[in-house]
Amino acid sequence: MKSFLNRVFRSKGFSSFIASLVSIVVGLLVGLIVLLFFDSAHAMNGFRHIVTAGLSDPGKLAKVFYQAAPLIMTGLSVGFAFKTGLFNIGATGQYTIGAFCGLFCALQFHSPWYVALLAAMLGGAIWGAIPGLCKAFFNVNEVITSIMFNWIGLFLVNLIFSNMPELLAVGNRTIAIGSESMIPKLGLDKLFGSPYMNASIIIAVVFAVVSWIILTKTTFGYELRACGFNRNASVYAGINAKRSIILSMVIAGAFAGIGGGIYYLNGTAQYTLEKSLLSMGFNGIPVALLASSHPLGTIFGALFVSYIQVGGEAMQPEFVKEIIDIIIAIIIYLAAFSLLTKEIIAKIVKGKRRNAVELSAPAEPSAAPAQTTNDNGGVEK
After folding, report:
1. Strand partners, 247
2. Separation of CA 189 from chain center
3. Which of 136, 241, 322, 337 is the residue whose CA sits 20 to 30 A from 23?
4. What proportion of the chain, given as a percentage, has pLDDT over 70?
5. 158: nearest Cα among 91, 90, 103, 105
6. What is the gyration radius of the CA atoms in the chain, in angstroms?
7. DSSP state of 268
8. What are the pLDDT digits (tens) for 279-311?
9. Helix or strand or coil: residue 38?
10. Strand partners, 132
11. Is the distance from CB of 174 to CB of 99 less than 8 angstroms?
């Protein structure tokens, strides 16, 4: 049992978990300080809402799951690219294109939900492939192209919707999709007593498991990770690095596109023509950081971020929305320090292990006393 615990404490997974936990705790403490600064009288009550609101009733828990599903997918998008040595900051653009493709099939062709979701996945994959192609063949940094295509995707979707008024309801929102295009609820809405609840969280968890299998249990996943660790070495080993880069971004884009699809095919959300990038794609970055880019850890990272968001909504009217956004932003940005915390923990564990080895090593035998001969032929010590 002791040896098992030692292996657990020394594992990378444990250090990643501790690093994420430290980031969460520090983020919550900073959030409490912000609340005390703005309104000390209601600070503790507001902090209580952050910590407990998501579990206060089934309806709020349903909203946690509802928001966590697309967060899992955008977190998988960012984390999958991280694992292969790429920084996919274009998840929000891929998410937007995926949402458009899914909504277009649902509104224009009244497609079944799985067809619309497949279209969302295809749209995100195509939008992710473009930065991948630029990186593979022209060595253009994927961060630059991803940021550019975030804005291109946003305004392209707005342009298409604006020129198809039959798809828009009053103002700048899309019309509600038909029941045939909605993701099935499987009775979960009645169980939780909330229209937000459907099978989207199950779909997201399934994709997280599939992503973990691809990365850790397949030759294809090994090639992707090897290319991420050292591109030149992987080429020397016979791996097609260009193909790996392109496919990595395609898969990452497909995950983000599915996120956009499952969010807007729920039947409760309508796409709104905006001039700012959708936050759901960017929120996938802290989700991936909290999970150390582990596909299964992404599930818990997304649930935490969604839980905090629901708790922030419950703080009104004592605190205005801007303060809630500040608190959530602090927690999100502190997640970036999880990688630094992980390295510190790993060094501490490594140092303790080295000290333990030195203490357990047997002492070297003392040297034999020197012997000399005296004038009479005797031996002296």
Report:
1. none
2. 26
3. 322
4. 83
5. 103
6. 27
7. S
8. 888 889 889 988 888 999 999 999 998 998 888
9. helix
10. none
11. no
